[in-house]
Amino acid sequence: MVDYKNLSDYIDIKKHHRALAILKVKNDEIVYEDYLNTNENNLFNIASISKFLIGLIIHRLQVNNKLSIEDKVEDYLDDFPYHLIKIKHLLYHESGIIDYYRLFEDEALYKVTNKIALDRVYQEPISVLPGTKFEYSNTNYVILYEIISKIKNKSFTEILREELKIPLEGFKEYKSHRKDILELLPSYDEKDKSILDSLTLGDGGFLANIHFFKLLIPWLHSQIQPSFFSVHKDKLNDDFSEHYEYGITVSPKDSIAFHYGMYMGYRSLFCANYQTKTSMMIMSNSSECTYDLRKRIMEELIE
């Protein structure tokens, strides 16, 4: 199990703003749960793990015949300028659309909404023929969020509740800065400064607490079959052992699906062994919760 003496080498628990939450669920049973300077009700920005929730909803919409991932994006979004791109190209990060992060200065990112990001992105050409190259781009999942919103005409929170049929008290969309969300822990970077977050949704921007994942993970274990994680075989590079599915990276060799989250000071990691039905979630509000630390915790806890 996790050695908190070693954890404190990374996260100074004397700094009361530094928080870490860890949850492990096997089947529908919580087998490990612990907190540093937080509890199951405090919200964290889960950053890129938001993409997995987008992927889940795209999958549910396809199962219910509301869309096909073979559909062209322009069939759903009137202002979409790229005629060859299909929904699957967004899902798999094979669209060639530029990452909007590259188009804005760091200090301006916290003002960027989906509309601002896409208005700017749509002025740029795509970099490759869709479906021919993997290029991770946050823009892909901003566009997927817009497609979901167009089809359902509801908030993403309402869509999650409707599709997953679980309570969502521990989930929010980040539509205003943290001063309006009292449960949200502030974010801290390595310079010990509190920092703002952007307002884009889909690529990130979703807030959640451990209580939400206590409800979500058993649903995943009961509803999502292992085949969900092997729909898209990596044909772009046969030597590459991992591929990107519905908002999550899949390692077939280990039967592991995972995604790291990092935005401003927030750090997170979701990991699932889809054969043993064991999943875990790590959330922190500090950049001191490094990639290596999250990976180490995952390797110690996941089966």
Summary keywords:
303 residues, alpha+beta, Beta-lactamase, seven-stranded antiparallel β-sheet, three-stranded antiparallel β-sheet, globular
What's the helix count?
Answer: 8
Named CATH topology: Beta-lactamase
Q: Compute the separation of the termini in Å.
A: 12 Å
Low-confidence stretches: none
The CATH class label is: Alpha Beta
Q: Determine the strand fraction and express it as a percent band.
A: 15-25%
Judged by helices, strands and strand pairing, the structural class is alpha+beta
**Beta-strand segment tally:** 12
- The CATH architecture name reads 3-Layer(aba) Sandwich
> What general form does the structure show?
globular
Helical coverage, percent range: 25-40%
- Overall tally of domains: 1
Strand order of the largest sheet: 2-1-12-11-10-9-8
Over all CA atoms, what is the radius of gyration? 19 Å
Succession of helices and strands: HEEEHHHHHEEEEHEEEEEH
